[in-house]
Write a sequence for this structure.
């Protein structure tokens, strides 16, 4: 599976309006909803927030990957948001978060869900790529960078 | 009848052995009904004491002070060892405020009430100062021992406060004693100015000794696992001793030293944790047994009324009011700060501090000691019995976190890169309902065992994870964030 299958440019938002963890998650779910990918936005928000409570998905180096499963999802979907200012996500390295990647999946697609999570975290493990994507401003730039880097792997 | 040696020692050890075992056996039953286990130790101590069945005449406050200090060092060190930096950092402001101004406020308000109840100013101030700090061991036993999982900031604040506030209580108590002995209040205020200095020195010494201890543990290439706890106990004692000698807070130094060691890479870490956990429990048992032996039941009756009233006032009025006032600027939910106010368990520290006035020969010493006894018992009973149900009722608990039926851990005498972590599968995490083969583990990581209820399941590709399972995963430290992304929070971090 490639990230280009689950991410489209209209699901990238930069800058995000939200300035706090829960608001940003809600905003990204709304982005997916507007793109017609979510049937039960409230249920999805709740699922992502519940997952966030077990442990922060701010996995360090400025990246957070909130995610959740919801029966209203037809297929795996991804949204990316860049906060206007680095955001407190209670990340494991206590650093503010510069990019939020939301992954939403139907409950029966566990394998793809995990693969997508792994792909995103692997993508962002390259320091030079992180520098590039944190410097990107527009949704188009961010989208291009992600798709290009993912295809090159 | 006086026994001759070695008979006397043998008889004493036999009685203490029976008391210890009885205490440990009773803990389970008491835990279930919410009575803090420490109280049974206390009762056993009284039973064994000079007016009880054991007839052990133990009146030596100097020895009690020394034993108490050692016990507290071991308890605080264990507390530090098990406290994550994340917790300390997150709760530094509220717990720091509670540990300083909160202690002063509690001491002052309680002294005022004691004075109103007819005690002399000296007695009232001594009692206020002595019982002003919450107890790390009692707090850890309740918050970490049972099934209770509190919201993080509430739990962190209560725990870190209990570790930080002892120095303040020590300083206040010594201040009152000095003021009484020199008949001048000036010396007490002078001591108060020293508080920040003491805390800073204590923290610096704690970090220093912690770093040195870790260096020794990782570089000394000790031949035997049994020597590791000898080094850590040495570190704990040195940090207390050095800090106290250079006018710092020894108790804070011990806690910091433990935290430095617990938060870094350490050889033989699971083994060390287990040993210090046992040492802390043993210390706790001994402290309360000793308190039981020290009190004289016939001297308790005259102060029973005032002691009970003060204990109640502290538990339901003084501490909650002071805590809620101090936490107000943090804009917590009311029930959160009220709960921190309720969990004001007292324990070993007041017992040790109550020996100070007796050792200094203050005429009020004995009476104060017995009043403190009531306060400690009540502030263990009232919050102790209500901590778990109240947390549930106020909605302050979080789910999860049962211990698995079986445990795997890596014990190595050298520092090796890699660790076994255990995750309990929450329904919300990505790995729930996934087969292990579907999980993209980083190249150096793998699941090694699944524990489902009482069942042990081999971690093979087709094994599908269910909510509630415990999964043991081997991974390198740098891969843990990704593993955690799939599995959630490890139970053993």
């Amino acid at each position: 599976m490639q990230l280009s299958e689950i991410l489209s440019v209209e699901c990238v938002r930069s800058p995000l309006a939200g300035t706090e963890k829960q608001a940003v998650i809600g905003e990204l779910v709304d982005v997916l909803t507007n793109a017609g990918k979510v049937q039960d936005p409230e249920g999805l928000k709740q699922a992502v927030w519940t997952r966030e409570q077990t442990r922060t998905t701010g996995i360090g180096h400025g990246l957070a990957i909130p995610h959740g499963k919801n029966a209203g999802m037809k297929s795996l979907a991804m949204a990316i948001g860049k906060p206007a200012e680095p955001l407190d996500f209670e990340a494991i390295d206590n650093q503010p978060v510069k990019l939020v990647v939301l992954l939403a999946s139907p409950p029966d697609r566990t394998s793809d869900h995990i693969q997508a999570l792994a792909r995103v975290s692997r993508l962002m493990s390259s320091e030079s790529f992180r520098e590039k994507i944190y410097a990107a401003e527009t949704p188009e730039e961010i989208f291009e960078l992600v798709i290009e880097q993912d295809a090159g792997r | 009848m006086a026994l001759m040696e070695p008979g006397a020692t043998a008889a004493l050890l036999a009685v203490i052995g029976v008391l210890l075992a009885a205490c440990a056996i009773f803990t389970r039953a008491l835990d279930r009904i919410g009575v803090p286990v420490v109280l049974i130790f206390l009762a056993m101590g009284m039973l064994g004491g000079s007016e009880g069945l054991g007839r052990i005449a133990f009146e030596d406050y100097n020895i009690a002070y020394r034993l108490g200090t050692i016990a507290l060092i071991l308890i605080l060190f264990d507390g530090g060892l098990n406290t994550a930096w994340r917790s300390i950092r997150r709760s530094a402001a509220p717990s720091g405020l509670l540990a300083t101004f909160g202690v002063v406020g509690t001491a002052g308000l309680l002294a005022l009430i004691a004075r109103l109840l007819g005690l002399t100013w000296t007695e009232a101030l001594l009692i206020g100062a002595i019982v002003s700090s919450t107890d790390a061991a009692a707090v850890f036993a309740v918050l970490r021992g049972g099934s209770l999982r509190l919201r993080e900031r509430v739990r962190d604040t209560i725990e870190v406060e209990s570790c930080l506030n002892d120095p303040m209580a020590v300083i206040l108590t010594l201040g009152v004693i000095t003021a009484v002995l020199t008949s001048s209040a000036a010396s007490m205020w002078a001591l108060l100015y020293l508080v920040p200095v003491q805390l800073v020195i204590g923290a610096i010494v704690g970090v220093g000794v912690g770093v040195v201890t870790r260096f020794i543990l990782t570089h000394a290439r000790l031949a035997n696992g049994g020597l590791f706890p000898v080094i850590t106990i040495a570190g704990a004692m040195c940090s207390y001793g050095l800090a106290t000698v250079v006018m710092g807070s020894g108790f804070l130094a011990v806690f910091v030293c433990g935290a430095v060691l617990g938060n870094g890479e350490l050889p033989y870490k699971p083994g060390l944790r287990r040993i210090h956990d046992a040492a802390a429990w043993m210390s706790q048992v001994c402290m309360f047994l000793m308190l039981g032996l020290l009190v004289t039941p016939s001297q308790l009756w005259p102060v029973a009324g005032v002691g009970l009233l003060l204990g109640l006032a502290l538990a339901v009025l003084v501490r909650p009011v002071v805590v809620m006032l101090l936490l107000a600027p943090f804009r917590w939910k009311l029930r959160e700060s009220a709960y921190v106010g309720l969990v004001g368990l007292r324990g070993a520290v007041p017992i040790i501090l109550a020996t100070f006035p007796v050792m200094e020969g203050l005429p009020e010493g004995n009476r104060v000691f017995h009043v403190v006894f009531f306060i400690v018992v009540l502030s263990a009973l009232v919050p102790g019995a209500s901590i778990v149900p109240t947390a549930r009722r106020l909605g302050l608990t979080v789910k999860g976190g049962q211990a698995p039926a079986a445990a795997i851990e890596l014990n190595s005498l050298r520092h090796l890169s890699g660790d076994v972590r255990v995750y309990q599968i929450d329904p919300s995490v990505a790995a729930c309902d996934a087969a292990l083969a579907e999980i993209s583990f980083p190249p150096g990581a793998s699941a090694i065992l699944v524990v489902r209820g009482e069942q042990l399941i081999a971690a093979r590709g087709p094994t599908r994870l269910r909510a509630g399972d415990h999964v043991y995963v081997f991974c390198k430290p740098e891969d843990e964030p990704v593993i955690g992304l799939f599995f959630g929070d490890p139970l053993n971090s």
